[in-house]
Amino acid sequence: MKRLSTIVGLVLLAALLLFPQGCGGIGGQIPLGNRVRFTIAGKGDIVMVLYKDHAPNTVENMITLVNNRFYNAIKFHRIVPGFVAQAGDPNTKSLDLDDNRIGTGGPGYTIPFEENSLRHLRGSVSMARREGRNTAGSQFFICYNDQPTLDGDYCVFGHVIEGMNVVDSLVRGDIILHAVVEVGEWVD
Q1: Count of CB atoms within 10 A of residue 162's CB?
Q2: Which stretches of the chain are DSSP H helices?
Q3: Domains (range + CATH), the chain
Q4: CA dihedral 156, 161, 163, 167 (to 10 degrees)
């Protein structure tokens, strides 16, 4: 019996070491090269890990937009308590938030939908889109709570690992001062 317990323990330890991330949350080691830090005016930072293995084109799109300073000065234009906080519309830089064009803007192109097994959990980062799966561009949302009804219809590509308190404090009109991709070694 003692030998069986030892074997079971070793198998569980091996599973934890080989599969640290799970399917929807975070855990294990986080690659700094796949992190983005958004600094929100007067509130602090939101840091998200990006899941390149699950959504490579979506992650590459986000990194490109961040490196091109696309998100700098963009406002969170949609806040639905208990549901999502949404940003990424460049129209928020120049139009009043009550303008009917708010929520329709993007980078001038769309990216293909990437279906994956990641779930919409509290802190999940997902691509917003218009009607149809292949209509996302730059708008993203962060889930305030688990949202299983969104699973499979929107591409989860990241998760907030720092600053969920900042997400919880967001109000419509809060500004992303700047966003940066953090590069470095693996960390626990």
Answers
A1: 14
A2: 2-18, 56-67, 164-169
A3: 2-187 (2.40.100.10)
A4: 20
Phi first, then psi, for residue 169 (nearest 5°) are -95, -5
Residue 36 to residue 48: CA distance in whole angstroms: 5
Most distant CA atoms of the chain, gap in Å: 70
Token pair 């001062």: residue: 177
Q: Cβ atoms within 10 A of the Cβ of 7, count?
A: 10
Determine the pLDDT at residue 13.
39
**Angular region, 151: left φ>0, alpha ψ -120 to 50, beta rest:** beta
Q: Whole-structure pTM over 0.70, yes or no?
A: yes
- What is the full per-residue pLDDT of the chain (188 aa) written as tens digits? 555 444 434 444 343 333 334 334 444 555 555 899 999 999 999 999 999 999 999 999 999 999 999 999 999 999 999 999 999 999 999 999 999 999 999 999 999 999 999 999 999 999 999 888 899 999 999 999 999 999 999 999 999 999 999 999 999 999 999 999 997 555 44
For residue 24, CA distances in Å to 30, 107, 115, 160, 167 come to 14, 27, 13, 12, 18
Please state, in angstroms and rounded to a whole number, the distance separating the CA atoms of residues 19 and 2. 26
Which amino acid is residue 77, in one-letter code?
Answer: H
CB-CB contact of 188 with 49 (8 Å): no
Q: How far apart are CA 55 and CA 124, in angstroms?
A: 13
